[in-house]
Amino acid sequence: MFSIKFVSVIAAVLALSMAPVGRGVEHQVTVGGPGILKYDPQFVNAAIGDTVLFTFKQKNHTTTQSTFAVPCSPMEGGFDSGFIPVPDDNTAGPFPLARFTVKDTEPVWVYCRQANHCQQGMVFAINPGDKFAAFQATAMGQGTNPASVSPPPPSPPPTSVAPVTVTATVTVSGTQLSTTTYTTNAASATPSVSASIDHKVTVGASNSLIFSPANITANVGDTITFQFVQKNHTVTQSTFANPCTSLSQTSTSGQVGFDSGFMPVANAAATFPTFTIHVNDTSPIWAFCKQTAPVSHCAQGMVFSANAVESGPNNFAAFQEKAKSSSSTSGSGAPSPSNTAANAASASLAISYGGLAVAGVVALMSTMIL
């Protein structure tokens, strides 16, 4: 739903971000820190027009809207900063920021969806009344968070069945920020061992709506590095059955697929962001671009696969045809004027890096470079 915006975005967008944001009070909230799984303060009381500025400190946290009844799961249509990594050696800043604008005085419930941070009490609220303690207690009493990111399990014997983990390393302008591991489908491990290969995939080459190459074969231990070279695209995990919807939204077992978030790149850019996944078994990997402005990139055939079984019905060509038959991308794509509650939520949270406020609303940022 939301994407991390980088400071290399065009000057016009940066200039827009400097515009005044109103006369409300700005509430400062620190997210995490060295050895700290906490929002500080844990709740605020805010009026309409106020803003809540989340400052992300060390480690890798999120600011994700949930509900009072289910604290550790994302609310449908709610805001989500996405994972925002901060290296341990960044002790002086600048730090990434997320700014939420208060639209009404109804309670807003928030949690960190990293691993079991929510179950350890890492929750936050705006205007909770006298219910914050109960909200936090419910979070700490829950089991495994179905929308969290889990660490990789120990490697099993070669003949056993192992969970698939996909490790996503986000690099900005050549600097690695952090590594996050997502749990995906289960499949048989490959017993053979070979030298690993890094497969390079260009996203949006020559101003085209393509992954190049769009279909590859990768072995266990290989990596796949997606380099974003033009416009504003994502690489988001999906399924063969639902090519244009994120795995996180279609899974019935709480699987969380990888998602680079939107990666805006100016035409004259000299450096390009990359997103890397680690292949832990040979089960098929399906992915798409979730950009929907001005048209659904996925429905235009902008999809990717690794280890598709070309001799069977679930091959890459069939996957791409299913994508093209989709009317539009569903899931957490770029907001459009037709979105209602989801669009309102996305427009209320702006993400920035390096202390620069990058755009006033996420909807604008997602569509500035098309």
TrEMBL record:
Residues 142-161 are annotated as: Disordered. InterPro entries: Cupredoxin, Ser-rich/MCO-related. Residues 149-160 have a biased composition (Pro residues). It comes from the Eukaryota. The keyword Signal applies. CDD domains: Cupredoxin (cd00920). Keywords: Signal. The keyword Amino-acid biosynthesis does not apply. Residues 1-24 form the signal peptide. PANTHER family: EXTRACELLULAR SERINE-RICH PROTEIN (PTHR34883:SF15), SERINE-RICH PROTEIN, PUTATIVE-RELATED-RELATED (PTHR34883). This is Cupredoxin. It comes from Cristinia sonorae.
